[in-house]
UniProtKB/TrEMBL annotation:
Protein name: tRNA (guanine-N(7)-)-methyltransferase
Its biological purpose: Catalyzes the formation of N(7)-methylguanine at position 46 (m7G46) in tRNA.
InterPro entries: SAM-dependent_MTases_sf, tRNA_(Gua-N-7)_MeTrfase_Trmb, tRNA_methyltr_TrmB_bact
Keyword S-adenosyl-L-methionine: yes
Keywords: Methyltransferase, S-adenosyl-L-methionine, Transferase, tRNA processing
Organism: Celeribacter baekdonensis
Encoding gene, per UniProt annotation: trmB
Keyword tRNA processing: yes
Ligand binding (substrate): 149, 181, 218-221
A single GO cellular-component term on record: tRNA methyltransferase complex
Length: 239
């Protein structure tokens, strides 16, 4: 790392605290990564591929379709469901956890009708660098890593480091959905997301107690309910 807080490649020095690898992948998952991942890329995102940080030409790549973004797609249940439900929308999923990426690739193999999903297997901040301003029509943050210890709360997605570039890449009046079962994550979301230029769309308690009409219950949510935690569904709009 140089004195100006950048890597030799020119990339900004960004600490990444989440897991990249989990349990050993099986052979089929390894095959998915080798055979399918490159073809699902939204374009050159990493600093190695795109050191000049040239903006992606998404209009050409996706034929002018509306583009949605899922930040941390876990095992891909929600992303595949939404891609099936809205075939005329392109959904870009970001996930640095290799096991989650492999799980999504497996789901896509088993759903060949889904042709509107793209994957960036890495840090969403690198994708933010190369997304054109105002190109995303809807964004999802579902059951993000809670980082429960107070000293780690700055690692959560709902901080200015992530919310400011998210706001930039969203279209005016774009929707940003957040689902979490962690009360303190709800608190931080309600404090920091409005400060970043979003308005909360709830008119009453049912607006955050009930999931969205097109919401598929994920394994994370089912685990939370089994363990007695209450899911919250918060909808914001870019101001």
């Amino acid at each position: 790392m140089s004195d100006d807080q950048t890597h030799e490649s020119g990339a900004p020095w960004r600490n990444f605290y989440g897991r990249i690898h989990g349990k050993t992948l099986n052979q089929a998952q390894k095959d998915y990564l080798v055979e399918d991942l490159d073809g699902l890329s939204p374009g050159p995102v990493t600093w190695e591929e795109n050191p000049d940080r040239t903006l992606l030409d998404l209009a050409t790549r996706y034929g002018g379709k509306p583009i949605w973004l899922e930040i941390g797609f876990g095992g891909g249940e929600h992303l595949v469901h939404m891609a099936k439900t809205y075939p005329d929308v392109e959904i870009i999923g970001c996930e640095p956890y290799v096991n989650g990426v492999a799980a999504l690739l497996g789901r896509l193999r088993r759903a060949p009708e889904v042709q509107n999903a793209s994957i960036h297997a890495g840090d969403v901040r690198d994708l933010f660098d190369v997304l054109p301003e105002g190109c995303i029509e809807k964004a999802f943050l579902n059951y993000p890593d809670p980082w429960p210890k107070k000293r780690h709360h700055r690692r959560r997605f709902v901080t200015a480091e992530h919310l400011e570039p998210l706001h930039r890449v969203l279209k005016p009046a774009a929707e940003f959905r957040v689902a979490t079962d962690i009360p303190d994550y709800v608190r931080q979301t309600m404090e920091e997301v409005p400060q970043a230029g979003f308005e909360w769309l709830a008119e009453g308690p049912e607006d955050w107690r009930k999931p969205w009409a097109d919401w598929p219950s994920t394994r994370y949510e089912q685990k939370a309910i089994r363990e007695g935690r209450t899911p919250h569904y918060m909808t914001f709009r870019k101001v």
